[in-house]
Design goal:
- The chain has eight helices and four strands, in the order E-H-H-E-H-H-E-H-H-E-H-H.
- Strands 2-3-1-4 form a four-stranded antiparallel sheet.
- The structure holds adenosine-3',5'-cyclic-monophosphate.
């Protein structure tokens, strides 16, 4: 089954947006496979954002992401990587349509409240970076038959 990694960022926690954000993925019909509150270390963030290490905003990004707790989650379901990205919106909140998480909750790329994996491969990499295998809970979803064929 397809899985994606989602991180609710420190600004969202400070602004008490966590419940609202979790609620959207839950109501959509995705299955929560793992969730934890984490104070991310700079080591973890430097691995997570390895591809961005040469960008001018990199230090600022690591500082932002380690400025408070984040909620790391794994969601599972049909086409979850692509659909979660659609629900999240564009990286720049100004390009995100109303109705998306970034479109509804934020205005600036440097405080964009949430991260979601951009591909199945990065989802795999990010899930194994943030979670141990035994933190991923395999549970029987009794609503599944009502959510897809
Ligand atoms: N131009 C930018 N200035 C500051 N932060 C940025 C910029 N572009 C991307 N980011 C941040 O880098 C992050 C990379 O992926 P995220 O989905 O976590 O969300 C992005 C933003 O938080």
């Amino acid at each position: 089954a397809e899985r994606t990694f989602v991180a609710v960022k420190p600004d969202a926690l400070q602004r008490r947006l966590l419940g609202d954000i979790v609620r959207r993925f839950e109501r959509k019909g995705f299955r929560l496979v793992a969730m934890k509150l984490v104070q991310a270390s700079e080591d973890l963030l430097s691995e997570h954002y390895f591809a961005l290490r040469d960008r001018p905003f990199y230090n600022h990004l690591v500082k932002y992401m380690s400025s408070g707790p984040v909620v790391a989650m794994v969601w599972q379901g049909l086409d979850v990587v692509k659909t979660a990205r659609a629900m999240i919106g564009e990286t720049n909140p100004a390009d995100s349509r109303p109705g998306t998480i970034r479109g509804d909750f934020c205005i600036e790329v440097g405080k964009n409240v949430i991260h979601g994996s951009d591909s199945i491969e990065s989802a795999r990499r990010e899930i194994s970076l943030w979670f141990r295998e035994d933190e991923l809970i395999c549970w029987e979803d009794h609503a599944e038959h009502w959510i897809h064929e």
